[in-house]
């Protein structure tokens, strides 16, 4: 279970620590501490170089970096905030911002953000961190999801283009399985972060919503069609065996190894393919459609904690990180979409055919709703999806259970 930063979870720990943390601050006056989750092997080298450049220009400020695995980031932040020992800045999932803002542990940034600074960003990426008109974070990382496909595997099965719909996906997957039983037609994620999102792809494409009128929206015909589609794929051997043993990185690895025909993921896979599988022939297309076209838009945000004693210095570092030069270095290294308007005009982005596909999909992107308890909702959803994937329950029963759990979690 992912820990949730809420009053029930933190309870008396946050209440008792609040006076200490809000008065004592998070760092010495000349030191800005930054907590960073690891995106790839390039993450820490980038931030180390950026910190060195910033400190060279600002010798009175020291930047201290701490990198944490994504899987343990939420737990670390909850623990640190409860004890009043959190960093000054941290990269978090944008979907966590509402919980943090409601508890008053992150600093509103509106007093720092000038019109010129806001003008650096594409609105679609800056908006998700704004709650009730107040900005609580800056989009440090952004991506959308698309479908990578192995062109050689498709050609061997008699196809020269990827399937446009989920019905066509079943047809093509069956043809791939028939043409080469050793190939995995469709990589299906069944473990860890974004397992729920993999289910949302077909659900969204059939017109479904995660939440409707403040309640769970998955127990619908769209949700049933989506989950039944995946159940059919598993039952017919059109996915990898043992789906619930595979996290996102695992199904990406199957694709990089040339063992699977399709995987839905972000633009960062392009960088990995160039480095790790340069001879693999692939294309990128839209997530298959149902009655409509949809994909997942994702941002992670960097936030400033309210108990920081070095807010001005922390903001100066944020301002530096969001200059065009720094954004180019970070997004090029990680394979993310540009969030900065000037950055997007640079040739390494403007002329990148892979990135163009993802950029075009943003018009149909769905973002995780900003609601309290989002991580609990994800956990409850994943548990039921895994039960279906393991053959332990029916799609109908799983969707009803998700609906009940989510409605109990929602404020």
From TrEMBL:
GO cellular component: ATP-binding cassette (ABC) transporter complex, substrate-binding subunit-containing
PANTHER family membership: MALTOSE-BINDING PERIPLASMIC PROTEIN (PTHR30061), MALTOSE_MALTODEXTRIN-BINDING PERIPLASMIC PROTEIN (PTHR30061:SF50)
GO MF annotation, one: maltose binding
Any single GO BP term: maltodextrin transmembrane transport
Key words of the record: Signal, Transport
Domain of life: Bacteria
Name listed for the protein in its UniProt record: Sugar ABC transporter, sugar-binding protein
InterPro entries found in the cross-reference section: SBP (IPR006059)
Record's keyword annotation contains Transport: yes
A Pfam short name: SBP_bac_1
Family stated for the protein in its record: Belongs to the bacterial solute-binding protein 1 family.
Signal peptide boundaries: 1-29
Cell inner membrane recorded as keyword: no
């Amino acid at each position: 279970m992912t820990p949730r930063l809420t009053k029930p979870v933190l309870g008396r720990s946050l209440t008792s620590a609040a006076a200490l943390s809000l008065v004592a601050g998070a760092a010495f006056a000349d030191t800005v501490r930054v907590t960073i989750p690891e995106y790839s092997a390039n993450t820490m080298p980038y931030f180390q170089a950026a910190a060195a450049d910033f400190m060279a220009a600002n010798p009175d400020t020291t930047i201290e970096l701490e990198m944490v695995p994504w899987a343990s980031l939420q737990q670390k932040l909850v623990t640190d905030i409860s004890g009043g020992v959190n960093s000054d800045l941290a990269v978090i999932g944008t979907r966590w911002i509402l919980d943090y803002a409601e508890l008053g542990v992150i600093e509103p940034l509106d007093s720092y953000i000038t019109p010129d600074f806001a003008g650096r960003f594409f609105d679609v990426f800056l908006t998700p961190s704004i709650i009730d008109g107040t900005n609580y974070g800056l989009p440090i990382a952004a991506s959308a999801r698309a479908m990578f496909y192995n062109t050689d595997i498709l050609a061997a099965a008699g196809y020269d283009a990827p399937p446009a719909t989920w019905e066509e996906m079943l047809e093509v997957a069956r043809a791939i399985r028939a043409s080469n039983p050793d190939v995995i037609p469709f990589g299906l994620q069944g473990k860890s972060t974004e397992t729920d999102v993999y289910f949302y792809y077909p659900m969204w494409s059939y017109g479904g919503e995660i939440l409707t009128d403040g309640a769970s929206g998955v127990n619908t015909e769209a949700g049933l069609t989506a989950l039944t589609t995946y159940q059919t794929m598993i039952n017919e051997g059109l996915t990898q065996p043992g789906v619930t043993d595979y996290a996102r990185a695992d199904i990406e690895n199957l694709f990089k190894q040339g063992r699977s025909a399709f995987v839905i993921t972000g633009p960062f896979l392009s960088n990995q393919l160039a480095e790790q599988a340069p001879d693999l022939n692939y294309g990128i297309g839209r997530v298959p459609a149902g009655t409509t076209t949809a994909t997942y838009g994702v941002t992670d945000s960097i936030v400033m904690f309210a108990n920081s004693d070095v807010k001005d210095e922390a903001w100066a570092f944020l301002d530096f990180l969001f200059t065009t030069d720094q954004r180019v270095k970070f997004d090029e290294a990680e394979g993310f979409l540009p969030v900065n308007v000037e950055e997007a005009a640079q040739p390494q982005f403007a002329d990148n055919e892979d990135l163009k596909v993802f950029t075009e999909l943003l018009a149909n992107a769905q973002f995780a709703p900003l609601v309290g308890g989002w991580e609990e909702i994800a956990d409850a959803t994943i548990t039921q999806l895994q039960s279906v994937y393991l053959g332990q329950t029916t799609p109908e029963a799983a969707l009803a259970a998700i609906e009940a759990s989510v409605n109990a979690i929602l404020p």
